[in-house]
């Protein structure tokens, strides 16, 4: 399968600051990227889907102005958590797929965000 | 909601025993996938079974799918301590929707 990296692997920030998380495809061109969040001992919840060069599609209940997603190239997607608050503390995981087969997704290792 | 429900939520067995985890879902799907997640890590794709398939094998893993009952099971045979992890089923129609997961502990 494809290799996906995320950076940073963990970040601690103060309340009110913005945090950018990068998701990179290391060995293929990702047409579609997905961002999930996972609270402790819970399942993954899809936050948004983005296609290269177009705006992201956010799931119901996810604030697009708070979670900014940029998919500027076929190898890089970024998630920026703006004005982070303690309730935004979570594990954020990206995944990527190629072509129309979005059922085949390759997941990154995740980023642990802690907001103090 | 199409979200899968898994049971048991937690399972603890002795090394060498078989582990069975179940997943149920609510709506029609294209396929169902099983993933493993070690604590604090990313997801590892284990196996994908399509809606027209009933059973699939991969090494020590056996997955069944019953679309009439909207359920699937994952069997891990001859468990090892390294199998300790959380296991998630995920159904795919237009997007991937994850179940709540089963935390599996293999005791040496």
Structural write-up:
The complex is a heterodimer of chains A (116) and B (108). In chain A, strands 2, 4, 5, 6, 9, 10 and 11 form a seven-stranded mixed beta sheet that branches. Chain A has a four-stranded antiparallel beta sheet with strand order 1-3-8-7, with no helix packed on it. Chain A is globular, with a radius of gyration of 13 Å. Chain A has strands spanning 4-7, 10-13, 19-25, 32-38, 44-51, 57-58, 67-73, 76-81, 90-97, 106-107, 111-115. In chain A, a hairpin with a 5-residue loop joins β4 and β5. The termini of chain A are far apart. Chain A is an all-beta fold. Chain A is built from no helices and eleven strands. Chain B is mainly beta. Helices cover 0% and strands 57% of the residues of chain B. Chain B has no helices and eleven strands. Chain B has strands spanning 5-7, 10-14, 19-24, 31-37, 43-50, 55-58, 61-66, 71-76, 85-92, 96-98, 102-107. In chain B, the strands form two sheets. In chain B, strands 2, 4, 5, 9, 10 and 11 form a six-stranded mixed beta sheet that branches. A five-stranded antiparallel beta sheet of chain B has the order 1-3-8-7-6, with no helix packed on it. In chain B, β4 and β5 (43-50) form a beta hairpin. At the A-B interface, β5, β9 and β10 of A face β4, β5 and β10 of B.
What is the compact description of this entry?
The complex is a heterodimer of chains A (116) and B (108). By secondary structure, chain A is an all-beta fold. Helices cover 0% and strands 52% of the residues of chain A.
Topology of helices and strands:
The complex is a heterodimer of chains A (116) and B (108).
Chain A: E1 4-7, E2 10-13, E3 19-25, E4 32-38, E5 44-51, E6 57-58, E7 67-73, E8 76-81, E9 90-97, E10 106-107, E11 111-115
Parallel strand pairs in A: 2-11
Antiparallel strand pairs in A: 1-3, 3-8, 4-5, 4-9, 5-6, 7-8, 9-10, 9-11
Chain B: E1 5-7, E2 10-14, E3 19-24, E4 31-37, E5 43-50, E6 55-58, E7 61-66, E8 71-76, E9 85-92, E10 96-98, E11 102-107
Parallel strand pairs in B: 2-11
Antiparallel strand pairs in B: 1-3, 3-8, 4-5, 4-9, 6-7, 7-8, 9-10, 9-11
